Amino acid sequence: MTSTTPSVQDKSDKDRVIIFDTTLRDGEQCPGATMTFEEKLEIAAMLDTMGVDVIEAGFPIASDGDFEAVNEIAKRTKNAVVCGLSRAGQKDIDRCAEAIRPAKRGRIHSFLSTSPVHMKYKLQMEPDAVHDLVISSVTRARNHTDDVEWSSEDGTRTEFDFLCRCVESAIKAGATTINIPDTVGYSVPEEYYDLFKRVRENVPNSDKAIFSVHCHNDLGMAVANSMAGIRGGARQIECTINGIGERAGNAALEEIVMAMKVRNDKLPYWNNIDTTMLMRASKEVSAATSFPVQYNKAIVGRNAFAHESGIHQDGMLKNAQTYEIMLPETVGVKQTSLVMGKHSGRHAFIHKLEEMGYKLGQNQLEDAFVRFKALADRKKDIYDEDLEALVDQEMTAAHDRIKLVSLTVIAGTHGPQRATMKLNVDGVVKIEEAEGNGPVDAVFNCIKALVPHEAKLELYQVHAVTEGTDAQAEVSVRLAHEGRSMTSRAADPDTLVASAKAYLGGLNKIVMKRARDMPAPVAAAS
Ligand code: KIV
Ligand code: ZN
Questions:
Q1: How confident is the model at residue 510 (pLDDT cuts 50, 70, 90)?
Q2: Average pLDDT of every residue of the chain
Q3: Residue 335 has pLDDT above 70, yes or no
């Protein structure tokens, strides 16, 4: 640790902050971040190991898939409280209770809008009726479990006296955690601090509940607002890995945790997170959602510990503290190096992946190794970024029902461009040829011919994983299907192969989701 990173010394209970992760609920709710059942289980296990106190695993009434994921996470989680979200209706609450029932420690999180604009237009209810519903919903939830959280949706735009009235009644009805969300990311730190301080001072039974912050990032202040709320007396932070979430996202877990660690002199609070797992968590969530992490993202961005300019490099060589306020190892970042190549063996490969924070199952490791060797034959230098792309793909491809077997494309100045593709669909190998307006179009037309579907391509993006003309191309696609968007990413030295794999990755997600909701043959993925 550098001298600018004081250690957390006085760990008194009053300064302990509960980390409530909502990656699997608020994070998954945002367009394009849909995760498969298996991905949700893996992420929940990782959050549990990392030391998250409460895992909000989903919204059980939303779909059978959500219910099953929450239910399975409740069965498997060893340490964390497993929480399900619920609206105020009785059916919602009962369904949520059923989903979390197997948990060692389960929580029902019920929410209801309290701001004038939400009550008038969204709920079309009078304040008195909303207040009554707060009481009946919390009472119902308390009949199922003694760990009940109540949220005043759009809390920061709620009239102060009404907010206090609802909070007091929710606590009286049995809520043990009170969350006041900045649902639309409108607040500023001083105001959010003041809100918690005043609510806690004005609500007579406020000492009977833990207060919680939940900030959206529409004005880029989610982390600052969260910390201000803690200063105002809240002791739970709701956040997501990589800050994913509705619109501009939620407060990023990794930023909150590192802010408390690095600036403990100004933010004298502590939590139980193992910070060395932050990078791995970021990569796992990015791979599962196919949401790339912004290069300059605080803590976990590719450039967060990179020094490019001569002046900075010179300073770093003399003393790392010149430009680094935390050691990369603290967040699980290893320096990029160029050690892997076609002569590297299985042992070195496994060791390297472990060093990079990856833990793969035996079959995944074997597959990844075979693909690493194939890549090393085609590409002289294998950078850490290449391995990351390869492993991310391996982790998402583990449950794929549609697999690319081979692809040949004829392209060039004399069109039309033509693609021949072989796919393995549920164990059956199929082949097809198609033309297109350009090679990518020809490839996608082949996929459509082999796996007929109605999904619409909303986004297609290509960038290079590393430098040089032999760099791997990383392709991201977003497919819109039945009102939801699925994003998927794939990398390969051949841009067209990466395009095919990315598109198939999106289709696989659609097929998996469809199969969970209603088992059906792959060919009917429309
Ligand atoms: O942003 C919000 O208000 C929410 C609630 C459901 C807690 O996500
Ligand atoms: Zn939210």
A1: confident
A2: 89
A3: no
How far does the centroid of ligand 2 lie from the alpha carbon of residue 221, in Å? 14
Q: DSSP readout, 2-66?
A: -TTS-------GGGB-EEEE-IIIIITTSTBB---HHHHHHHHHHHHHHT-SEEEEE-TTT-HHH
Structure tokens at 474: 């990383």
Mark out the alpha helices in 292-401 (DSSP H runs): 310-318, 346-355, 362-378, 384-397
Cα of 111 from ligand 1 centre, angstroms? 7
Distance in angstroms (rounded) separating the CA atoms of residues 246 and 218: 9
Say which CATH topology domain 10-289 has. TIM Barrel (3.20.20)
Task: List the chain domain ranges.
Answer: 10-289, 336-396, 402-517
Atom in ligand 1 nearest the alpha carbon of residue 179? 7
**Per-residue b/e over 314-323, b at no fewer than 16 CB within 10 Å?**
ebeeeeeeee
Amino acid at 265: D
CATH number of 402-517: 3.30.160.270
pTM of the model: 0.79
* Measured distance between the N- and C-terminal CA atoms of the chain, rounded to whole angstroms: 53
Q: Residues 140, 157: contact at Cβ < 8 Å?
A: no
Q: Whose CA is nearest to atom 7 of ligand 1?
A: 151
pLDDT at position 523 is: 45
Kindly report the length of the chain: 526
- Among 477, 495, 501, which residue's Cα sits nearest to residue 487? 477
Q: How many CB atoms lie within 10 A of CB 438?
A: 12
**Structure tokens given for 85:** 């979200």
Mutate to test the pocket of ligand 1, among 20, 153, 187 (most ligand atoms within 8 A of CB): 153
Q: Looking at the CA of 118, which ligand is closest? A: 1
Q: Which of 124, 196, 116, 189 is closest to 154 using CA atoms?
A: 116
High-pLDDT (> 90) share of the chain, %: 63
| Contact between 90 and 140 (Cβ < 8 Å) | yes
